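Lab notebook, design round three. We kept the backbone fixed and only want residue identities now. Task for the bench partner: fill in a sequence for the structure below.
Input structure tokens:
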């Protein structure tokens, strides 16, 4: 298989149109078999539920080329389960997780020439998504939906790769208590855009969102969960029912405990205690694990001892072990790696 002629090592996190995408339609109460197609455009009616009331959800995952030349994905069953949860909460028809995984495999296989080579630092980002294609004008769920999978080769999500980030505590809220923060609804991202544009305009890389009810607890950023490391090397992650249950975070907590022998804790994290942590990172499929050097709370700077030049030592070990597992250099726990080819 001849790879596409791309400068893999200099890719950013941006969309590049690839050859094939998977499409399945839900009509008359059932999903059709779905197919791979070449057309990258979508035609829907002007009154489609997604256009009027934002009825849409999505997933994010990656395919990797391993050291021995296989193409693999990482825990796709968990993305399938999370998409099922998103669909239920948004009154959309569930796309069964077994068929979800099958669609991922088919789309990656069909775009093998776009899977970045081992060692390039790039990966193939996989974006499964679903939207209401049927017409609605009264506020209610549509009757027709489309499920699609597109893939696009990507480099690091944050410019500068591993340079520690500076975050600000946002005055905007990402997710309401009992709202949709725990699912991957498109609307969560639409309403985070003003907050992220504002943060960027003020010179910050990202927002730290707090719990809207009390504004005393750490939640997450617009696209990643937090991990903290205490001065005695315990790995701590915020517990909240309104943050997205990150698959990367769940995997890193297992890596910390089982591979690195560290103590781990999922608990409420107060803004007040940020100054006491030794290291901080953002974790997610796109972010992998990106170090945070500084958090600015309305003019007050909280600087982590890990500094603004390199990843802290624990975050670095977590990063190296997770990417080692994903790229086949380190043996994975059973069921984590799905070999595509
Ligand atoms: N939090 C939010 C809001 C996200 O959009 C993402 C990305 O998917 C994550 C966390 C990280 O989740 P995961 O590790 O499953 O990619
Ligand atoms: C991911 O990490 O896959 C995400 O969905 C985060 C962001 C690109 C929206």
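Proposed sequence:
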């Amino acid at each position: 298989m001849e790879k596409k002629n791309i400068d893999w090592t200099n890719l950013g996190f941006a969309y590049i149109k690839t050859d094939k995408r998977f499409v399945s339609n839900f009509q008359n109460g059932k999903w059709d078999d779905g197919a791979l197609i070449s057309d990258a455009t979508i035609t829907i009616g002007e009154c489609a539920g997604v256009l009027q009331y934002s009825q849409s959800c999505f997933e994010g995952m990656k395919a990797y080329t391993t050291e021995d030349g296989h193409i693999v994905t990482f825990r796709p069953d968990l993305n399938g389960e999370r998409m099922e949860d998103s669909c239920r909460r948004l009154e959309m028809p569930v796309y069964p997780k077994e068929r979800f995984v099958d669609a991922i495999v088919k789309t990656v296989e069909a775009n093998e020439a776009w899977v970045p080579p081992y060692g390039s630092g790039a990966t193939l980002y996989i974006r499964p998504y679903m939207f209401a294609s049927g017409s609605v004008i009264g506020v209610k769920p549509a009757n027709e939906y489309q499920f699609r999978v597109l893939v696009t080769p990507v480099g690091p999500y944050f410019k500068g790769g591993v340079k520690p980030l500076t975050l600000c505590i946002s005055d905007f809220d990402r997710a309401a208590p009992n709202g949709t923060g725990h699912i991957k609804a498109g609307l969560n991202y639409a309403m985070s855009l003003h907050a992220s544009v504002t943060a960027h305009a003020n010179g910050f890389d990202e927002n730290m969102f707090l719990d809207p009810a009390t504004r005393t607890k750490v939640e997450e950023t617009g696209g990643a969960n937090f991990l903290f490391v205490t001065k005695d090397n315990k790995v701590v992650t915020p517990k909240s029912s309104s943050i997205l249950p990150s698959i990367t975070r769940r995997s890193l907590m297992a890596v910390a405990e089982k591979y690195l022998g560290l103590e781990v804790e999922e608990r409420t994290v107060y803004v007040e205690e940020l100054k006491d942590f030794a290291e901080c990172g953002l974790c997610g499929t796109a972010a992998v694990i990106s170090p945070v050097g500084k958090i600015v709370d309305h003019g007050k700077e909280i600087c982590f001892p890990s500094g603004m030049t390199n990843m802290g030592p624990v975050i670095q070990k977590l990063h190296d072990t997770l990417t080692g597992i994903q790229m086949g250099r380190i043996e994975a726990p059973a069921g984590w790696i799905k070999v595509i080819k």
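Keep this in mind before ordering anything: The radius of gyration is 20 Å.
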